[in-house]
Amino acid sequence: MARSSFWPTWQPSTGVSARAWSATYNATPVIDIYGSVDGTDLGTVGDAVHAQLDAVRHELPRGSDLKVRGQTETMRTSFSGLAFGMIGAVLLIYLLIVVNFQSWLDPLIIISALPRRWPAWSGCYS
């Protein structure tokens, strides 16, 4: 496979392997680069890959694009969905406590005190 000038230079360290070949995705020609990592977490590797891609994005020819797919994309969408669900749950609990106490301020005080008391409830620091 011929190397173009806009592809980043990847210096594999211990436990990192990568391979690439051309394919199609949604009827668009793509070059898939597969990598496997041993001894580190997916978030660290994903951040390193995104940093490499951002560094060379401005050198791409017109009409070209770089996208990360696979487990990294799945992890990021899962965590954003989890954050949205947690915010929605806290808001729902707040509104239920508002109805119960018939006050807007008391539930806010109660919910703001919960994160400081959570480790005592869970037994983490017993």
Shape: elongated
* Poorly predicted spans: 1-9, 11-15
Q: List how many beta strands DSSP finds.
A: 2
SS element count, helices: 3
The percent range for helix content is: 40-55%
Radius of gyration: 23 Å
Which structural class fits the helix and strand makeup? alpha+beta
Termini separation: 59 Å
How many structural domains? 2
Main pleated sheet:
2 strands, antiparallel
> Mean pLDDT across all residues, rounded?
78
Order of helices and strands: EEHHH
Estimate what percentage of residues fall within beta strands: 15-25%
Assembly annotation: single chain
Which strand order spans the largest sheet, edge to edge or round the barrel?
1-2
Task: List its salient traits.
2 domains; 51% helix; alpha+beta; 126 residues; 2 strands
Give a brief rundown of this model.
This protein is an alpha+beta fold. Helix content is 51%, strand content 16%. Strands 1-2 form a two-stranded antiparallel ribbon.
Describe the structure in your own words.
The chain has a two-stranded antiparallel sheet with strand order 1-2. The chain is of the alpha+beta class and 126 residues long. The protein has helices at residues 42-56, 71-101, 105-122, and strands at residues 16-25, 28-37. Helices cover 51% and strands 16% of the residues. The protein folds into 2 domains: 16-69, no CATH class; 74-121. The model is unreliable at 1-9 and 11-15 (pLDDT under 50).
